[in-house]
Design brief:
The chain has two helices and no strands.
Length: 46
């Protein structure tokens, strides 16, 4: 698995992006994948 580490502001942007849900399914899925990958690295998913 590719390791990533999002900064706090990047994670917040992605969480808001997914929360609003007004994008294509592909964009939302990619955002969720980034958040989950970050969570695996010790980040938080709120």
């Amino acid at each position: 698995m590719v390791g990533i580490e999002l900064e706090e502001n990047e994670e917040k942007i992605l969480r808001n992006f997914v929360k609003k849900g007004r994008k294509s399914a592909r964009e939302l899925t990619r955002a969720r994948i980034l958040l989950l990958a970050n969570q695996q690295k010790g980040g938080t998913l709120r």
